[in-house]
Amino acid sequence: MTDLPSHVEIHEEGPREGFQIEPGPIPTANKIRLIEALADTGLHHIQACSFVNTRLVPGWADAEAVVEGFKAKPGVHYTGLFFNGNGLDRALAFKDKLTINGSISLTASEGFTRKNLNRAPQENIDAMKKHSALQESKGVAVTRIGVMAAFGCNYQGDIAPAQVISTLEDGLAIAAEAGATIKLFSLADTMGWATPMRIERVINEVRNRWPDMTIALHLHDTRGLAVANAHAALKLGVTQFDSTVGGLGGCPFAGQPKAAGNICTEELVMLCEEMGIDTGIDLDALIEVGRLAEEIVGHQLPSELIHAGSLDAFRRKAA
Amino acid sequence: MTDLPSHVEIHEEGPREGFQIEPGPIPTANKIRLIEALADTGLHHIQACSFVNTRLVPGWADAEAVVEGFKAKPGVHYTGLFFNGNGLDRALAFKDKLTINGSISLTASEGFTRKNLNRAPQENIDAMKKHSALQESKGVAVTRIGVMAAFGCNYQGDIAPAQVISTLEDGLAIAAEAGATIKLFSLADTMGWATPMRIERVINEVRNRWPDMTIALHLHDTRGLAVANAHAALKLGVTQFDSTVGGLGGCPFAGQPKAAGNICTEELVMLCEEMGIDTGIDLDALIEVGRLAEEIVGHQLPSELIHAGSLDAFRRKAA
Q1: CA distance B119 to A51
Q2: Which residue of A45, A116, A193, A317 has the fewest C-beta atoms within 10 A of its own C-beta?
Q3: pLDDT, tens digit, for every residue of B150-159?
């Protein structure tokens, strides 16, 4: 009936997602402090920064300073997000410190592609062809297809699973043209439209089509269902999730400044641990980092768990 | 594999849970405004107030004024919480306006009974025997057994399902002695220890023992898992839930002032509606009431959905 994994790999994106959306500039030293604290919890994948246009995303004007500044922990993969050749070059300048994976980024919603990227779907495909060729030409293997708005879209409404399939087919065609071998599909619930039933439907359809592909989920808690969605995915054997400590992030697309961000790493870890699924992460240490994140941004974060404390902490007290 | 109900009955407890915990006094007129707005969403069960010791819970010193003040909507059941004879008498003064159901309230955790009620378990059972006889003697049929801390306890740690069973057996013995017929077991996750697996285990064990009893769940979102827990319960066919609009409430037992309250009514309604389960509630109207609740308490409430807006609202815009 269920297909629970024994281990789940969590990719922490709190620094990148969280600090791009905060209104005030976060001091570089605090970004470094958070990244280093995260690495001490047992997390093995941390997205440390975003190499984006600093005019459009001033919160990441210090990307280079952050990467230079943090002390890398052996065994931890640090990444930086990039969308174009300029961002890739900035990341490659740190190729000894960062793990640099090539990616094809598509959107299952035409409405979102037009409104968010200001591109027609075909223009976006053409851009991704160029970007894929560029990545491969610089020795960065393109191994991942990311699909945004895979479960629904504020601009377009419901997204049919067939649309996700066809978007992945577009991605595979782009990869083939670039001579790339895709190893992972990352499905993003960019605007918080997923429900457990929708998660099941989309994952089952993608698996029917590509039984051997690894599927990762990037969930947002925009409407409070992220943990329920993760639970549904875990029961289907999904083994890789993106998340943010404290629920850092917010959703710029929901059109509501108070809208929640990504699924909280610590709530995801708690769910896994209570289900007997190993994450390699020390939950109590992670909760402390969530509290640090709250201190750094200077306002309450969406995570409930950092305010309540872990079950294990109470178990120890009660014993 | 699943046993989804076609309809779910939601008992709104936002006014009662929410206003007892807010630090500032909430004006009586605002409590009335919220209760009346809730009744206009299609909710059929609203806990309007708490007839508790006004010295201990000053936030409910105006219980009588609130019940006198709101305009009752036909078809809606309004209730007031009471724990003792004095509270019952205060409720009975409004027997034409309030629905008054008798209840036996027990706790699956000895630690919680001692720390929260300052009673040994047997003392609590004796108190409930007296309270049951009193309710029946006043013509209030005792039809419900409530079990607090049914999924775990901050003072005692994990609670075995067998402990829930034996607590329910205690309750049934109390009921039998009072000549009462129990129709409902209400299992409360008072301190946010439930996980989907624990929900499944406890409900299955209770059902194995009492296959025909209706089970209601009172979930708290203390650690962010409430919606996932509700989803697990819905898949088992549970048809009755308590919840609070906006996630009003907070958890005084978690020892953290920022800890979350009950499961949000609007997130529960969204989950049901997206699963094709009827609640009779207008979600967009309810979201507006959640925003009103936030305005009334003067700070951000835990509900994510009231900040993001419903999927249907975006579907209409996109169409």
Answers
A1: 60
A2: A317
A3: 999 999 999 9
